[in-house]
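Batch manifest line 430
LIGAND: uridine-diphosphate-N-acetylglucosamine
JOB: complex structure
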Amino acid sequence: MDRIRIVGGNKLNGVIPISGAKNAALPLMIASLLTDDTLTLENVPHLADVEQLIRILGNHGVDISVNGRRERQGESYARTIHFTCRNIVDTTAPYELVSKMRASFWVIGPLLAREGKARVSLPGGCAIGTRPVDLFIEGLQALSANIEIDGGYVNATAPEGGLVGARYTFPKVSVGATHVLMMAATLANGTTVLGNAAREPEVVDLANCLNAMGAKITGQGTPTITIEGVRSLSGARHRVLPDRIETGTYAMAVAMTGGDVILEDTNMALLDTALEAIRRAGAEITETNSGIRVVRNGAGIKPVDIVTDPFPGFPTDLQAQFMGLMTKANGTSHITETIFENRFMHVQELARLGAKISLSGQTAKIEGVSRLKGAPVMATDLRASVSLVIAGLAAEGETMVSRVYHLDRGFERLEEKLTRCGAHVERVSD
Ligand code: UD1
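JOB STATUS: finished
ARTIFACT:
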């Protein structure tokens, strides 16, 4: 199993190209199930989760051709992928596939909308607390679906004539459930109004792509999304938006080590709140023609308190990384996680590097230390694993991160991107 070996202490200087967003690519790929025409997605990142979803979609009958052309020689593996689902050949998403990645549960929306039925295994994914699917079920029921849960599977059927548009207000903001209901409603009879919808940029990206396919969606990016059902959708060509989590992660890495890095092909509007927190921690962040410049010189890292929240709040997917940064702050900070109840698994691993963190309910108190010391650590989930990389970059000596398959789910060529900026990071295969 691969491990990542980091020798800390180097500043980061250079350019890091930001990949297409994993969390946008996944729902966009799933949207290909809604049409018998070809959906072409550009800027698709090369990640384990994307490969897994390609297998899952293939199982449903999606014909997939990958154009492996590198968009920028030697720098990015961003790919253009064509998805064509002439016929859905299987409306079952089996446990063996869905248990590996939670987002694959989302096929339930398009399958139900296009075929009138879906049998989808209850999901798996990162172990960051119980992640129920009640909102998906309630929402699809509001569109008149009949749903039964049996033997670990969700069996959903649409009424004769298809799903029926309705007004549904989410009791809690959910990115996944917003994606699914929006996709399902595109082909429903009549109009659907989703209240308390997620406002994440990935939701907007999916809505824009669906509109390019002929859907009639308005209000994306606000809490109220209106979807006027259409009879069918066509193909389209769409470019996946930049990965704001990858952007924020590298910005925090630079804030941690010091240095001067341009994050290319991304933009500040995707992560205002997170960038503001990094600024308060002592980094200078400015917009450039090609992306974002992050600089930290001289002064140390200042302690900053954050609370995770749905967009436009501080993203839960950057919480672990920010904690990594705060371990070396000149003072005490507090991080409160409000989205997932068990997303602090990185705490004990950061402690192995010398971090001083105590937990009280959903809040972590981080007492900054002046030095971290390299140690063997274990990646526990996708975002937690990269917080260990951030800490390792500033730790003295060697940090060896095991279980890096977590990292490979969401960070494209991380070791290469960091090495090019002067870090000492390498993949070790045993
Ligand atoms: C997506 C992102 C994930 C990010 C999360 C929150 C992808 C592939 N994943 O996950 O990286 O951490 O948004 O920004 O895009 N909930 C329920 N019932 C449901 C659905 C969700 O109670 O039916 C709860 C969850 O347990 C959690 C909260 O709602 O507490 C938010 O979850 P949700 O936004 O659905 O997260 P995901 O879409 O799974």
